[in-house]
Amino acid sequence: MPKRVDPDVRREQVADAVIDEIAAHGVRSVTLGRIAARTGLAIGSIRHYFGDTIREVMRFTLGVLMQRAARRDATMSDDPLTRIVDVFTFAAPTSEQEHRENIALVEYRVMARTDPELAADIAATSLAAEEVIRSLLREALADRAIEEEALHREALLLLALIEGFSFSSALSSTPLHETDVRAVVTATVQRLRDAYPPSEKAVEGAAGAAEAAGESRSHG
């Protein structure tokens, strides 16, 4: 009796083949024949899981790429500023596998410029990423005097930074170095924070704390 194969495992195997093909030869090189050669599956088997066209394979692989990027493990700091650095560091492609997946995702993004269906999928992910960055930044600047419009611009700046990491890595033959990513993001976030003065609430809180400390010393 033939061994039963989990369809989800088989589809993931096909997606990995598509990612490797794009990383090696570009998105336009992906065909059912090349996927079959990479996986050892018959073309008929691939069609069994995805239908007769390559388009469903490509859309499924895009979904896999976005899910993997969202599921990457990260140890998050309790400090809001450090948390931004942690998020950027785990999102940047710093391993060989992440490098290949990032190349594939960048090629998908270029292809989406003229493909409305792919564009809709990618736009939804980009909006979610922007919201996450804005939320993290709001926490990190909670004690700073910054208007909502300025917060929005700074979030766009950080989004441009992470996209810069993505595109520069895609054009390179090697992944980014985690220490470099962490150092760049740390310096950027610190400069951003220093650009805004403490809020009135933060100043009052600091003055109250200093007064309480002075009273404690005088009674000691």
TrEMBL record:
It comes from the Bacteria. Residues 196-220 are annotated as: Disordered. Gene3D superfamilies: Tetracycline Repressor, domain 2. Residues 82-192 form the BetI-type transcriptional repressor C-terminal domain. Residues 204-213 have a biased composition (Low complexity). InterPro entries: BetI_C, Homeodomain-like_sf, Tet_transcr_reg_TetR-rel_C_sf. Transmembrane segments: none annotated. SUPFAM superfamilies: Homeodomain-like, Tetracyclin repressor-like, C-terminal domain. This is TetR/AcrR family transcriptional regulator.
